[in-house]
Amino acid sequence: MSLVTVGTVAFDTIETPFGKAERVVGGAATYISLAASYFTKDLNLVSVVGDDFPDAELKYLKKRGVNLEGLEIKEGQKSFFWEGRYHNDMNSRDTITTELNVLADFNPKLPASYREAKYVMLGNLTPDIQMKVIKQMKKRPKLIVLDTMNFWMDIAMPSLKKVLKKVDVLTINDEEARQLSGEYSLVKAAKAIHKMGPRFLVIKKGEHGALLFEGEKMFYAPAMPLAEVFDPTGAGDTFAGGFIGYIAKTNNVSFENMKRAVIYGSAMASFCVEEFSINRLKNLRAAEIKARVKKFHKLVAFDASK
Amino acid sequence: MSLVTVGTVAFDTIETPFGKAERVVGGAATYISLAASYFTKDLNLVSVVGDDFPDAELKYLKKRGVNLEGLEIKEGQKSFFWEGRYHNDMNSRDTITTELNVLADFNPKLPASYREAKYVMLGNLTPDIQMKVIKQMKKRPKLIVLDTMNFWMDIAMPSLKKVLKKVDVLTINDEEARQLSGEYSLVKAAKAIHKMGPRFLVIKKGEHGALLFEGEKMFYAPAMPLAEVFDPTGAGDTFAGGFIGYIAKTNNVSFENMKRAVIYGSAMASFCVEEFSINRLKNLRAAEIKARVKKFHKLVAFDASK
User: Fold this and answer.
1) Distance between CA B110 and CA B6 in Å, rounded?
2) Which of A54, A61, A289, B282 sits most deeply, having the most CB atoms within 10 A of its CB?
3) Do the Cβ atoms of B48 and B103 come closer than 8 Å?
4) How far apart are the C-alpha atoms of A248 and A36, rounded to whole Å?
5) Which parts of chain A are beta strand (E)?
6) What is the reported pLDDT for A189?
7) Nearest C-alpha of chain A: how many angstroms from B304?
8) Dihedral of CA B190/B195/B196/B199: which sign?
9) What is the pLDDT of residues A53-71, one digit of tens each?
10) Which positions in chain A touch B257 (Cβ < 8 Å)?
11) In this predicted structure, what is the pLDDT of residue A106?
12) How many CB pairs under 8 A join A and B?
């Protein structure tokens, strides 16, 4: 089923204890689209880059089935750039540089062919831009997923609350769920956030897995314990891409299916961190993904009848 | 099957955002024994109290099937006392007071009837005392479980490493696993800790669940997301008590059964935090425990075949 993704397409410079990668391809929409491309081929990207963004990388996205009709290329301008350094524990990082560049006045325009998509994935961006995308849809999509972060809660809470009323699924981390709801208990936070609009809430807890809530229903997806985390950049976006990609493929928004979507998202994220940048997402095989999902199943399986 | 538990029997003064409980019953061995008493009745406690410890509480332990022959009561002395205050997030706490009292020169003596027990649970104490208990066993027990904490890693690492060589299961939290192994990745930490002696490793991650390792095998038990955590005191000990109690009941140390034991431990811990002190552990019904275990199963269940 058709999926519209909005988010950044960008350059990252990443330093981890394992090494440094300079000006490599990054951006939420890049990770989301690549992860989703393993599940569905009706992928439609909305973003903006400068004329410094390599043609080869755009061609690669097209090859993976990503429609770039909604990607604006601004002549004479530079692409969004982020530089960060991870601490030894890989769970925290410092931002060294953020250059908005083309993103500063990004005004998303959805091509006509995008406006009846069944699924919409709003990557982490200002809530106002996310709202502009929703407003351009001709028909209410079957499912709108929104990813956001504490930064927007700090500086744009009223706009964020407005757009939350329009979405079906919110994906945030545990600290953000606490900040948004004012509740420490994630069970109480989920209840408070449901009242703000989203019927489903996905709380991403990094190495501690993810929680899915719908009303009283709860699902706990583990994270795969890994011997080596090489580069965590894009793991959350890759999770979102696997999640929405699986839902778009199966065209099923039941809680049971969304549980599987959370596992597929977790599986894709567990691959993403194995190499720098989008590299691991370039060479996955369907059988590897299926095997990783089975590994997740085995990780939590026990016989409760004894 | 027979279980010997060594650990503290003590008084706690606990302050949480929900209120304060003064000089209530606590201690690792108390929580372990009470939790285990829901699974097996061949329970043998080794500990020491002063003559200030209430008879009624000892009678209650006996009523739950706990053999107190190995509990020394020191006339004219005071029981171990701990006072702590939890922060708003309930995940961290400050110790206000620790009075060792009778614990200062505790020299555990195992009654003859204890020395052929099949299962031994060494609650958090100095590694030297834990070793003294092992040495008094006439036959190698089927399974020895050791719980410890960062404090002993800081001040008694050589003794801890000696006793680790003698045990089958180590239970510690994630930060302690990292400290003990020098590895950040828990997968690598588990490998390093296996080499120190314990065939099984249980990493307790509090609200993020628990991991069980045996060689290359891994199992991830979630924690039950709770609307209210009233008092986390004793949750780790209660986990250990449910874990070893279930193993002693089933007399089965296979990985498959140990997975269930981790879930039973998690279920007991999820009850423990619902009330102050040992109160919730006093009035549980078998059906409640079974229902909670089923809830854990439902929390992680998904159909991987689709």
Assistant:
1) 10
2) A61
3) yes
4) 9
5) 3-6, 10-16, 19-26, 43-50, 66-74, 80-86, 93-99, 119-122, 143-147, 169-173, 200-204, 210-214, 217-221
6) 97
7) 6
8) positive
9) 999 999 999 999 999 999 9
10) 306
11) 96
12) 96
Show the domains of chain B with their CATH numbers.
3-300 (3.40.1190.20)
* Reported pTM: 0.95
Angle among Cα B84, B89, B92 to the nearest 5 degrees reads 40
Q: How far apart are CA A192 and CA A178, in angstroms?
A: 10
pLDDT in tens, A174-229: 999 999 999 999 999 999 999 999 999 999 999 999 999 999 999 999 999 999 99
Hunting for tokens 């425990």 — which residue is that?
B289
Both tokens of residue B162?
A: 């000696």
* Residue A170: pLDDT band with limits 50, 70, 90: very high
List of chain B residues whose C-beta atoms are within 8 Å of the C-beta of residue A209: 208-209, 220, 222
Q: Do A228 and B300 touch (CB under 8 A)?
A: no
Q: Helix or strand or coil: residue B203? A: strand
Q: Which one of B88, B173, B208, B305 makes the best mutation probe of the A interface by having the most chain A beta carbons within 10 Å?
A: B208
* Partners of A171 in the β-ladder: A147, A202
